[in-house]
Amino acid sequence: MDYGLLSSIIHSILVASTPLVFAGLGALIQERAGVLNLGIEGLMIVGALAGFATAVAGFPLLVSILMASLAGAMLASIFALLVLRLYANPVATGLALTLFGLGLAALAGSQYVGQAAPQVAAWEIPFLSQIPVVGRALFSHDPLVYLSIFTAFVIWWFLTKSRTGLILRAVGENHTSAHALGFSVRGVRFLAIICGGALAGIGGSYLTLVQTPLFVEGMTAGRGWIALALVVFASWRPFRVIAGAYLFGSVSIIQLHGQALGVSVASQWLSMLPYVVTIGALVVIASRAGTSQAAPGSLGKIFKESR
Amino acid sequence: MFGFRYLTALGCFVASLTLATSVNAADPTKVGFVYVGPVADAGWTYEHDRGRLAVEKEHGDKVETVFVESVSEGPDAERVISQMAAEGADLIFTTSFGYMNPTIKVAKQFPNVKFEHATGYKRADNVATYSSRFYEGRHVLGLIAGKMTKSNTIGYIASFPIPEVVRGINAAYLAAKSVNPAVQFKVIWVSTWFDPGKEADAAKALIDQGADILMQHTDSAAPMKIAEERGIYAFGQASDQAAYGPNAQLTAIIDDWAPYYVRRVDEAMNGSWSSTDTWGGFDTGMVALAPYGKAVPDDVKAMAEEARKAITEGRLHAFTGPINKQDGSPWLKAGETADDGTLLGMDFYVEGIEGSLP
Amino acid sequence: MIMIEARAVTRWYHEWIAVFIALLLTAATVSVLLASLGLDPISSLQRIFIRPLNSVYGVSELLAKATPLITIGVALALGFRAGVWNIGAEGQLVMGGLCGGAVALAFWNIDGFWVMPLILLGGTLGGLAWGAIPAFLKVRFNANEILVSLMLTYVAILLLSVMVHGPLRDPTGFNFPESRLFHDAATLPKLFSAGRGHLGFVFALIFAVLGTWVVKRWHLGFEMRVTGLSTSAAKFAGYNRDRTVWMALLIGGGMSGFAGVVEVTGNIGQLVPNISPSYGFTAIIVAFLARLHPLAVIPAGLLVALSYLAGEAAQLSLGIPAASTQVFQGLLLFFLLGTSLLVNYRIRFGRVA
Questions:
Q1: How are beta strands B323-324 and A140-141 bridged, if at all?
Q2: Strand partners, C345
Q3: β-bridge mates for residue C190, sequence order
Q4: Which three-class secondary structure state does DSSP give residue B291?
Q5: What is the chain A residue with the closest CA to B184?
Q6: Is B2 on the interface with A (CB under 8 A)?
């Protein structure tokens, strides 16, 4: 085995998976609060454009990410208004958000076609990045890859260790009880939606800043949907979102490499692999886990405090 | 936000357009275009739209153009084409293969409207077809790639195994092989025309496996951008992509529809339009090459130019025997050139290309 | 101070008032945007929304566009009521089109009254089978149907691609990825002399009525609804969760498959790589706009279909880019969803009592 190639493959897998990690975590934080937001795709593309536009204007990476998250959060606030204030159906509102976001990004983004953002430099982690094979594969990435893993850690800590996280989970599991206990269901959900939108926005910006890196309309190409599926795959747990995203990314990248190495199967069959493997893995996990992988109890249900 | 500027700009544009048409009292020829992607795709649709703009520029207020973009090739196409005809279009260009049968159907209902379908093979009295011999461009790209590769590995990102794409791979391979017998092609089929992320991943996979020059037959500029980042070379697709790869782009095949569109609109206006089948190459100007990149050495440039001239003048055909099919069975005898029918339906690799056609 | 309070009694016209206000708000917003583009709002709105419906042709096309949305919308409304999250209707539609199309091609140029029913049956079974996979995995392995049905959508689209690039492509078609054109016996009859409105629309209407009947009268509908509302209540009543999952996904799959085969035999007339502009996803919006009421799916489906036609008209006659029509569509949906509040609540201006 060619170890140089192996480390390159792993490197590519991490890059291809990172947008899914961010967006998946963004969906997860909302769903743990009981909000089902199918608008992730729309949030991603708007973040993709905002991040790209900022980078093209010459701002540093940090500002680009901030703008991407801000754009995602702003679009998400429309969703929050409709779902929390006006009791609109969240499933349909999420889909409408996707339509709206894709249109908005296309409209505002047409002037960015043909433009180039500066390349994002890798952070070579001292010592670790010097290790053969593993060093290049894992420890010489752009800052966002590390940030995505760190974010998962923060969310895990938040959900399991912090008091606010506990409240958020309570709201997600049973909003009527949480309300009776005096927690602001609407407030918690609003924050979750805003954070989720911001994370989805960052996920989108990873596509335009690092992975491709350019902006064209419609370029998220269904990644928001995959992210939503991964949350289910992960049984609503942050580290499993990473695992799911990396699994999906691995199969996607390995099938491409397989073709370049001369595997002779119709490419459409190979392109099906990531989806089929994810289903298979879910079946294995679900059949063993029993009930521990259940969705948050109030997921997707409308909360009306007057009752 | 950024949207506002765009909207106002668009507003001025539309306003000036309506003003312009209202001033002109004579009934202009109305020309419609149906696009498969957005105008801002920097590739296939963008070039068709440049053709449309060239028509407007050439014929001024004697024409009025309309277009509908991002029309899916499924059930919506027929309605859009028919609506366009009903709204008084005199000539309609349908610019993707999937519009073939809808175009034929609508043409039957509107015998007085003229239709032009790109890349198809069905015609009628009021339906003409047109396409470009992109493989002529691929031949020149193959020559440059064969000469310039150091690793002797060319990466090729392909979409779907349709004749158009297979023809391009074969043409490029044969040309590269003719100048560099050691050259090898690695082909990745991404099963999509447009997914910048996946195209970028495929580009990285090819580079990681030793490719130092990339070619593509998908719609986004992502592979060019990746080539630029990794410091290797690539060829632009459909459009000049130097903006994405100022150092990486060696040249690009440009689909230049302007000469054809201008001519056909002219014919429609003076009454000489008839249903024809046009498969234009370098000679008609429908296939063009972007300026050579800085990295291309003078001798390679000279060779590429010579090949382009030879093809333009009809002295050279990209598929000239002896050529065997991949399984070793003979296809063309020495000196024999491929007929258009075989090229049109090409579904086999030529000898020497590894892997099987999906 | 603006206050929102629950209505004591909800009357039938509250629903219509809410929709009317939403349409008014959309018209107002679109007018402002059009005016900012330098266009005359009234005549532009007339060109976008009224002119597409000004002829038999236009109405016929509207019905053609609404057919799959209504058919799938009804099926999803039933499934969502039961709390089964089938978001893979798109894949089930594609499989229906593929299988029905394959039957049509297998009996190519053979006439007979039985050909068309056989094709429709083939398509329905194709969709049914695709819906059965998530149902089986859910019941047997407890695998979440959201993920499975969604992932299977991508698999279905790729499967269709394999087939039209290979086995099912037109033998006389120069290896282009399209099947033969179906012959007349394999094409659904048209409803009008103009446009493509076809018999499938009548089926869609029948489904909506049947769906209403299922919800209202049939014991199974009640069972599905109870299971959807509360799992423990359903358990208490002795209802079978597994059966509900099976029914919801089989109905969803079968009807989406039917919508798919109707689309290829009624609208397209052949198999192509891309048979659906996301009807399966759009139908989810339709189902919820109708608030999961099968009869209300009809106007909801027609309205959403009209918004697509309006988008094309806006590009064609006003030169507005496709992206902004998507934005308008999003706005329309936001207003429709936002104003649904007015059905059960009223807004009061005044001091807190």
A1: unpaired
A2: C6
A3: C198
A4: coil
A5: A260
A6: yes
Compute the distance between CA of residue A26 and CA of residue A201 in angstroms, rounded to an integer: 9
Q: What is the rounded distance in angstroms from the CA atom of residue B139 to the CA atom of residue B168?
A: 8
- Please, what is the angle between helix A223-233 and helix C145-165, to 10°? 140
Show the tokens assigned to C192. 């009008």
What is the rounded CA–CA span in Å between residue B226 and residue B240? 16
Give Cα separations from B348 to A270, B35, B168, B316, C305 (angstroms): 20, 29, 12, 22, 42
- Tell whether B103 and B227 lie within a shared domain: no
Q: B12 vs chain C: nearest CA distance in angstroms?
A: 7
Per residue in C174-187, is it b (16+ CB within 10 Å) or e — as a string? bbbbbbbbbbebbb
Task: Count contacts between B and C (CB, < 8 Å).
Answer: 115
* Strand partners for B330: B324
Closest CB from A110, A119, A260 relative to B209:
A260
Q: Which domain holds residue A203?
A: 18-224
Nearest neighbour of B7 by CB, restricted to C36, C165, C177: C36
- Please answer yes or no on whether B347 and C316 come within 8 Å at the CB atom: no
List of chain A residues whose C-beta atoms are within 8 Å of the C-beta of residue C338: 82, 86, 88
Count the neighbouring beta carbons within 10 Å of the beta carbon of residue B22: 8
Q: Which chain C residue is nearest to residue B35, measuring alpha carbons?
A: C322
CB spacing of B200 vs A223 below 8 angstroms = no
| Start-to-end C-alpha separation, chain C | 11
Task: Tell me if A71 is assigned to some domain.
Answer: yes
Task: Find the domain containing B20 and state its range.
Answer: 2-132
pLDDT in tens for each of the 358 residues of chain B? 333 344 344 344 334 333 334 444 458 999 999 999 999 877 899 999 999 999 999 999 999 999 999 999 988 999 999 999 998 999 999 999 999 999 999 999 999 999 999 999 999 999 999 999 999 999 999 999 999 999 999 999 999 999 999 999 999 999 999 999 999 999 999 999 889 999 999 999 999 999 999 999 998 999 999 999 999 999 999 999 999 999 999 999 999 999 999 999 999 999 999 999 999 999 999 999 999 999 999 999 999 999 999 999 999 999 998 999 999 999 999 999 999 999 999 999 999 998 888 6
In a domain, B83, yes or no: yes
Q: Is C161 on the interface with B (CB under 8 A)?
A: yes
Domain stops at, among B114, B132, B150: B132
Contact B15 C64 (CB under 8 A): no
Could you tell me the CA-to-CA distances from A304 to A77, A93, A307, C6, C81 in Å, in that order? 18, 17, 6, 10, 19
Residue of B nearest to C322 (CA): B69
Instruction: Classify residue B271: in a domain, yes or no.
Output: no
Q: Which chain B residue shows the shortest CA-CA distance from C323?
A: B38
Q: CATH class for domain C38-319?
A: mainly alpha
> Residue B319 sits in a domain of what CATH number?
3.40.50.2300
Q: Which residues of A touch B155 (CB under 8 A)?
A: 260
Q: Do A266 and C162 touch (CB under 8 A)?
A: yes
Spatial separation of the C-alpha atoms in residues B272 and B83, rounded to whole Å: 25
pLDDT digits (tens, 9 = 90+) for A18-70: 999 999 999 999 999 999 999 999 999 999 999 999 999 999 999 999 999 99
Across B307-334, b (16+ Cβ under 10 Å) vs e yields bbeebbeeebbbbeeebeebeeeebbee
Q: Which residues pair with B94 in a beta bridge?
A: B34, B117
CA distance A301 to chain B (A): 34
Contacts of B347 in chain C (CB under 8 A): 175
C339 Cβ contact partners less than 8 Å away, ≥ 6 residues apart:
A86, C18, C19, C21, C22, C25
Q: Which helix (H) or strand (E) holds A127?
A: none
Neighbours of chain A (3+ CB pairs under 8 A): B, C
Whether residue C171 lies within 8 A of chain B, CB to CB, comes out as no
